[in-house]
Amino acid sequence: MPLYQALILGIVQGITEIFPVSSSGHLIIFPQILGWEPHSLSFDAALHLGTGLALLFFFFGAWLKLLKEKDWKMILFIFLSSVPAGLVGLLGGDWIEENLRDPRLTVYSLIGVGFLMFLVEWIYLRLKNLKEEAGLWDILAIGFAQTLALFPGVSRSGITILTGMGRGMKRERAAHFSFLISLPIVFAAGSYQLLKVFQTGELASQAPDFAVGILSSFLVGLLTVKFLFSILRKYSLVPFAIYRILLGTLLLLFL
Fold first, then answer.
1. Looking at residue 169, what DSSP letter applies?
2. Which residues constitute the domain of residue 41?
3. Cα→Cα distances 214→15, 95, 186, 242, Å
């Protein structure tokens, strides 16, 4: 892979992993539009590792607070919430890569979740006594929702934020817990894929691509997460829903 492609894909990952528009969907569709060769799931995982590092950096204070206050119950809940997606990814990851990394299926997911965003926002505006903090069932619900993000086009941040909002959490707090609980699964998946590449002896040849991709996705992801929270404090998910539906509709005309 040329380094400029790794750089561009890292930038795309940094933006679309944080915004609820599906990074996996864009990483499938973007190369197809530009006529590039499909990249490996291992490179996908490396890019996710970069945005995972950005989220760790951004939420370091939140994690440190949990540790300082010895809130082991919340820490346990967060790690438990990663189990469903971890099991599905471990047991069905190969099948998903072989059968679901299809641009047309990705487009349908983009559009479908876009309409779901409209529905949840409509319900959210009618809820009263919104919650500032997440309880056990809220965190577990968000954790189970992460499994849907394994399907390209869904968006991990999108589906988990929607789940939190659907359970009566404030939009910004739902996003906070969405990203907080994403760290264990993102690092586990990224590390596992990198280990597989290392074991096959391909890491040396792919190291420059991985380094550029991880660094660019980290830096762009860090800027994007700050921007996202500034959006969620003032606005809704509707702009992202419109983007998803318009993009999906346009892609249906070309794919």
1. B
2. 3-254
3. 13, 25, 13, 29
Average pLDDT estimate for 206-228: 87
Looking at the chain, list the stretches that DSSP marks H as alpha helix, in order from N- to C-terminal side. Answer: 3-16, 23-34, 41-58, 60-68, 72-80, 83-99, 103-124, 136-145, 156-166, 171-200, 203-234, 238-254
Nearest CA among 136, 133, 117 for reference residue 244: 117
Output the six-digit token pair for 7: 């750089």
Question: How many folded domains does the chain comprise?
Answer: 1
- Sign of the CA dihedral 208, 209, 214, 215? positive
The two tokens of residue 40 are 């490996």
Alpha-carbon span 18 to 20, nearest angstrom: 6
Contact yes or no for 18/225 (Cβ under 8 A): yes
Q: Report pLDDT digits (tens) over 221-230.
A: 999 988 888 8
Cα torsion 191, 192, 198, 201: sign = negative
The residues, ordered by sequence, that sit 6+ positions from 121 with a Cβ below 8 Å of its Cβ are 165, 236, 237, 238, 241
- Split at pLDDT 50, 70, 90, the class of 104 is confident
Tokens in use for 206? 């792919």
pLDDT at 88 over 90: no
- Position of tokens 């318009």? 246
Phi, psi of 169 (to 5 degrees): -85, 150
Confidence check: pLDDT of 135 > 80: no
Per residue in 155-184, pLDDT (tens digit) is 888 888 899 888 888 888 888 888 888 777
Find how far residue 166's CA is from the centre of its chain: 18
